[in-house]
Design brief:
The complex is a heterodimer of chains A (about 375) and B (about 375).
Chain A lengths: L1 E9 L5 E10 L2 E6 L8 E4 L4 E4 L1 E6 L32 H7 L6 E6 L7 E9 L5 H4 E11 L2 H7 L9 H17 L7 H11 L5 E5 L2 H11 L6 E5 L7 H7 L2 E4 L7 H5 L6 H7 L3 E3 L2 E2 L2 E2 L3 H12 L4 H8 L1 H6 L17 E4 L11 E6 L2 E2 L2
Parallel strand pairs in A: 1-4, 1-5, 6-7, 9-10, 10-11, 11-12, 12-13
Antiparallel strand pairs in A: 1-2, 2-3, 5-16, 7-8, 8-9, 14-15, 16-17, 17-18
Helix pairs in contact in A: 4-5, 10-11
Chain B lengths: L3 E8 L9 E8 L2 E6 L12 E4 L4 E4 L1 E6 L4 E2 L6 E2 L23 H8 L2 E6 L7 E3 L2 E4 L5 H4 E3 L4 E4 L2 H8 L8 H23 L8 H10 L5 E5 L3 H12 L3 E5 L7 H7 L2 E4 L18 H7 L4 E3 L10 H11 L4 H6 L3 H7 L16 E5 L9 E7 L2 E5 L2
Helix pairs in contact in B: 4-5, 4-6
Classes of the chains: A alpha/beta (about 375), B alpha/beta (about 375).
Amino acid sequence: MYLIKNGRIHIGDGTILDSCDILTKGKKIEKIGREIVCPEAQVIDASGCEVFPGFIDPHCSIGAMGIPSRHLDNQESTGLFTPEMNVKYAMDPDEVNAQEFYKSGITAVGLAPGNGNIMGGQIAVVKTAPQKMSERLVKEKAALKCSVTSAVKNTYGSKNQMPKTRMGIFWSFQEMLRKARTVKIEDREERQEIVSEVFDKMTMPVFCAAETPAEIQGLLHMMKEEKVQASIVDGFGFGDALEEMKRQKTGLILGNVNSCSQIAKYGIDLEKINELVKNGNRVAFTNTCGGFSEGREVFLWSAIEVYRAGVEAEEVVRMMTEHPAEMLGLGDRIGTLKEGKDADISIFTGHPVTTYAAKVKHSIINGEVLY
Amino acid sequence: MRQTVIKGGTLYTMKDGQDVFQGEILIEDGKIKKVMERIPEEMISDDARIMDASGLCVMPGLIDAHSHIGMFDFNSETSVDEANEMTDPVTLSIDARYGVNPKAREFKVAYEHGITTMLLTPGSGNVFCGLPFAMKTYGDNAFDMSIKAPCAVKIALGGNPKNTYGDRDQLPMTRMGVAKVLWDTFRKAKTYMEDQENGKNPPYNADMEALCLALKGEIPCKIHCTQYDMLTAIEVAKAFGVRFSLEHAWGATDYIDEIVESGCDVCYGPIATYRCVGERRKIDVEAVKMLDDRGVNVAIITDSPILSEESLYHHIGEAVREGVSQERAMRMVTINPARILGVEERIGTLEEGKDADIILVKGKLGLDTNAKVQCTMIDGNIVYCCL
């Protein structure tokens, strides 16, 4: 049991509680309130500190890449549609450990297939602490990873296979959906069954990589009549598809904007994220750009870029906590500091969205103090 | 050119031993004419432009000592690599000025974020990569924007050249091979230089001519190296008595003593790469504090556009997060890199006689995440302003 005393607590849903305490018991949050007394708990003094729910990166390739093997473990480039691939089997705990994600306050990541296939496989969520695998895996089959980016053309078109163009990508995507829905049940392949369950029974949400305005607009057009909850990964050109994103309540998992100068390349106006916020769209941050992860720092940097552009700090905090948890269907377990939820807590010396002089003082994952 | 006076601001001159103070700057003909608490009225002409910097920090323009903007050109649909002439492990004398697209969008981002000078360098695909140069970030023509060429000899160790030539079954295929190319080329240049000095008139060799500049101490070597390769760099540089900087320097915390003892400069960054075995084993920005405390001249670099130019703020910020004071961190993107580029007589501090490359900043860069450059002046011209 730990008793975190006197912190400034950011619940993760936009509310802040000043000089408040959190009591953890086992792996869970037992109680949140003022002046909690619990003699048997070990006290962590959080006076002057900012306390956050562990941050969540819902789309992360590092941890499933299997570096330095010759073939990346999250890129099954043998078929355009491999929705049956489960990233759980590609997980490399050492690769996650080496990143020390918790030093940037990140306590859970959604390990994701790459961008090379239109449907790459199923995302699995893991905690970032070096703990037993059984305790780290939060959820498998958390979302179906799709992609309509040029990575698909580079993977298949370069071999003179469909798709060689964006038209080919969307044609293939739509044909897959049509066939999965019209094939006789007894003839249905495993992948068609998964597609039909995802798109018609909403067994999991869709995370689809799309970078340019044309890719995003094409995706939104194709998804117009679909009911499945969709989030766009990378989404650098989102500003040119705002109205449709608002209409469909599409999520945005903003890619690593500092990688290869994406802001300059797309002329991104991050202030427009405010429109999505007002409309109730979910927004989150991924350490990937084009399907490839960079280190833990870029997650905070993207958050800072959005804050710099004029989005309120506590809204940005929600994008690091509550929103990604909900996107992954884990809103009941992680993402906010509430009684009964996982004790994933990052204690910073300052507010990491507003000041660089904010360092993680303690990181707690599954109720265990890492440092 | 009209005079300009910047009044009311808090001056961060970055001059050694000078504290922050409230003061004024007089600018004339693109140069800083006077920096003092109050410019006497008689020095200011009637038509002078007066800029009110109340509530703002006034600083020298920022300097990024390692960039490839407009060389790795992401401005076309397919990205262009004009940075790596990967046809021979030694392309020592190719000139980066010919590789830059001065109209690349990232330059605009740079001066809008207060970065007024950069070192543009060939990439790391070869062991001897070419000749970097220093340029201002605003202009239409790289040759006009250039303020010093060449600034250094760019050398690269490790994975980049090894993979370039290893894939072709050519030397160097290993880090040992890289070291051999390094030793052989330096020895050859030394002989070339001695032959010249002894009147033997060796046949002209452009590569050897360029490396002789380093051997004579006229320009330093910029050596791309990380982790253990830093020791290789130090050993070879020492053997030939060249001035040098370690570029990138991931893992420097393991070699602090060796770095201090060698007397070299360090250009640290970019950070935020994912960690994995080999060159990316350790990304330790805390090294800049340890090196700075021990008196090493340290610059913080972005490697832009590989990481965005605006990420320079994040890079400074991460150094601050690791305990570097904001004021020391700012030196790592102003006067320290100016010295590494060999242009400290012209830029890097707010001092009389230097180029009027000045930025007005709201908030504290490297500390406040929303600190914002309000105005950028290069050679006395306002190139960006949102005041």
